[in-house]
Amino acid sequence: MGDRRDLLVGGYFAAALTATIVLTFEFSVGAYFQSSTYTGPFNNWIVLALMPVFSFLPIVAASALPAALMICYAERHRVRSALVYGLAGAVVGVLAYLLYALLLMVTAGTSKGFGQQCVDWGIAKCAGSTLLMFCMPGSAGALVYWFIAGRRAGEGNQCRIDMRTPSR
Description:
The chain has 168 residues and is mostly helical. It has one domain (2-152). Helices cover 75% and strands 0% of the residues. It has five helices and no strands. The longest helix is centred in the middle third of the chain and has 34 residues, at 44-77. It is globular, with a radius of gyration of 18 Å.
């Protein structure tokens, strides 16, 4: 029983690491195409080299709740389809981004500056780029999770939640 729980947790961390690598790759592609126009204080490549180090823990923290809900659902209902895991990972990626953005707004005390890109680009382009940017890492991470633990979902029934009212 403990072995299955270890597999679930290990699969989650492997999924988060995969999402971190994919997100870093996406940013590096963007940096490559913008390197000639970038005039900021840091070299793009130095920031990208440090990005996995500083983004892994926020990815773990922001995706923990949505991923735990999806994992418990999959374990309870014995969902073993890679397609379902890939789609659920895309949803988890977007939800993790939204939770992270909300956390940034709360800690900053303002929402000023958030969403300005959507005003400049237009809602359709902004929504499309946001979905692409965070669905891909979520889906990639979910497929790694499926390979590690999801193929055998429900074997240990780790997510037992009793919703019945206790009898007296």
